[in-house]
Automatic annotation (TrEMBL):
Keyword S-adenosyl-L-methionine: yes
Family: Belongs to the precorrin methyltransferase family.
Matching SUPFAM superfamilies: HemD-like, Tetrapyrrole methylase
Annotated metabolic or biological route of this protein: Porphyrin-containing compound metabolism; siroheme biosynthesis; precorrin-2 from uroporphyrinogen III: step 1/1; Cofactor biosynthesis; adenosylcobalamin biosynthesis; precorrin-2 from uroporphyrinogen III: step 1/1
Residue ranges the record marks as coiled coil: none
Native source organism of the sequence: Desulfarculus baarsii (strain ATCC 33931 / DSM 2075 / LMG 7858 / VKM B-1802 / 2st14)
Name of the protein: uroporphyrinogen-III C-methyltransferase
Enzyme Commission number, as recorded: 2.1.1.107
GO biological process, one term: methylation
């Protein structure tokens, strides 16, 4: 039985610009065939077991020829595979999607084409340049800046293009002097506003603005390289008013989020909302503890405790599941006081119908101890459901105050499979910021890196080339213990406060 190929437009760079249909097709793929311009973050939308095949093509460097890609897609579909062919931008806007679809049609193989946001409109948009605006241009032409080299002669109608309002050239960096010269020679005024946008809709976005006559010289002086789009027309002048993206507080920052995948979304979304390019590489994975009976025993005797103290939101669900496994629910805690280390833990409790009696003002173990200062703990029974590895300051201090403390492991943290390889690839591409939300994220990241990369990370943090953002003092201590310089630590140890503090630091630096 034959499979099916989805020719998917991956958009221009910002992973949030992918369509809902594209995400659905990726989620059912057996194989993802992706190219140079597709954001690697999108690979995470495919099933974990899906195979990844890189067929990247950039100027002068083709991992696989177009004919080879066509044959690969056909072979995979003939094997019964569901294939997500992830292409930068839109498959049919100078993306050779038509050639790949024709090859599949000729073999009688099923395919669908999923349109994507083309860089022809997205890159100018993210640079503050509308491709049409009735004050400047009522028509737009999209033109290849790199014609098929096998053609006998150019088929570009320069005379017609010179008379149009807006022109957008794709893949034209190498031929930029010729493009500008041809337009001027065919009547386009030399002073016409023009711009080049490289790596549009990413943290690497670079915009060069000039006139048609001097844009090639400005681009050369800036060392402009592909991938880039060129925009010519009066609407380019609107960039001074409409340049929204490059004015965002975290624009130009490539930020590594090391938080566990299930918890990363809030941090990642907050960073992206401020213009950061976010790359996720969880250095910890959180799993409930295998059932050894201890947690279920503690849950069954929850009513015997005077206090249950939750030092992490991660402990809430495993504890309550253990309670349910013993045929009980939250009513078993009606006489037990509950302590939460911070608002995230309090929210996790509230989702399960539990209200805390006490919450730390500073969201660390010491904060809980401070909040308990006015409570007589002598002879009181205290239960601590927590991670397998945790600091002992809380139970030790509680025992000094006369409390009878039981510790049960509710969850464990460890390095996710494949994280080391992904981290190496991310570090090789360069970073501007690393965020840490727990000591374990720091320890695991440093354990994954080889010695030269560790030394580079430490040196870049010391020079300020790499910003290290830590959620709180305990995490910061771990980072400093590994030799890193910490630049950002919010006064309140929460994700929103971390994002706000990082944005403030970047705006000042």
């Amino acid at each position: 039985m034959s499979g099916k190929v989805y020719l998917i437009g991956a958009g221009p760079g910002d992973p949030e610009l992918i369509t809902m249909k594209a995400a659905r097709c990726l989620a059912q793929a057996d194989v993802v065939v992706y190219d140079f311009l597709a954001n690697p973050e999108l690979l995470g939308l495919a099933p974990a077991e899906a195979a990844h095949v890189y067929v990247g093509k950039k100027g002068g460097d083709h991992t696989m020829s177009q004919e080879g890609i066509n044959a690969l897609l056909c072979d995979l579909a003939a094997q019964g595979k569901t294939v997500a062919r992830l292409k930068g931008g839109d498959p049919y806007v100078f993306g050779r999607g038509g050639e790949e679809a024709s090859a599949l049609w000729e073999r009688g193989l099923a395919f669908e084409v999923v349109p994507g946001v083309s860089s022809a409109v997205a890159a100018p948009c993210y640079a503050g340049i509308p491709v049409t605006d009735r004050r400047h241009a009522t028509e737009v032409a999209f033109v290849t800046g790199h014609e098929d080299p096998t053609k006998a002669s150019s088929t570009i109608n320069w005379q017609a293009l010179a008379a149009m309002g807006s022109l957008v050239f794709l893949m034209g960096v190498k031929n930029l002097p010729e493009i500008c010269a041809q337009l001027i020679a065919h009547g386009k005024p030399a002073e016409t506003p023009a711009a080049c946008v490289r790596w549009g809709a990413t943290a690497r976005q670079q915009t060069i603005v000039g006139a048609l006559a001097d844009l090639p010289q400005k681009a050369a002086a800036a060392g402009l390289k592909p991938p880039a789009v060129t925009i010519v027309g009066g609407a380019v002048a609107l960039r001074e008013q409409l340049n929204w993206y490059e004015r965002m507080p975290l624009f130009g920052r490539r930020v590594l989020v090391t938080r566990a995948r299930a918890q990363a979304s809030k941090l990642s979304a907050g960073l992206r909302a401020l213009g950061a390019e976010v790359v996720e590489c969880p250095t910890i994975e959180i799993r409930p503890m295998p059932d050894d009976g201890q947690l279920r025993w503690a849950a069954a005797h929850a009513a015997d405790y005077d206090w249950v103290l939750f030092t992490s939101a991660n402990a809430v669900e495993p504890f309550l599941q253990a309670l349910l496994a013993r045929g009980r629910d939250v009513r078993a805690l009606h006489r037990t006081k509950i302590g939460a280390i911070g608002p995230a833990t309090a929210q996790a409790l509230a989702r399960r119908g539990l209200k805390y009696d006490l919450m730390a003002k500073s969201f660390v173990a010491e904060g809980l101890l401070e909040a308990l200062a006015d409570h007589d703990l002598a002879g009181k029974k205290v239960l601590l459901p927590r991670a397998t590895r945790a600091r002992d300051v809380l139970p030790e201090e509680l025992r000094k105050r006369g409390a009878l403390v039981d510790i049960v492991a509710a969850y464990e943290t460890f390095a996710p499979a494949g994280a080391k390889e992904r981290l190496e690839a991310i570090m090789a591409d360069g970073l501007g910021v690393i965020t840490f939300t727990a000591s374990s994220t720091v320890d695991n990241l440093m354990d994954m890196l080889d010695e030269p990369t560790k030394a580079k990370l430490i040196a870049e943090s010391a020079s300020g080339a790499l910003i290290v953002a830590s959620i709180g003092p305990i995490t910061s201590q771990s980072a400093r213990r590994h030799g890193m310089t910490v630049h950002v630590e919010p006064a309140e140890y929460t994700i929103p406060a971390l994002i706000e503090a990082l944005a403030a630091h970047c705006q000042q630096s």
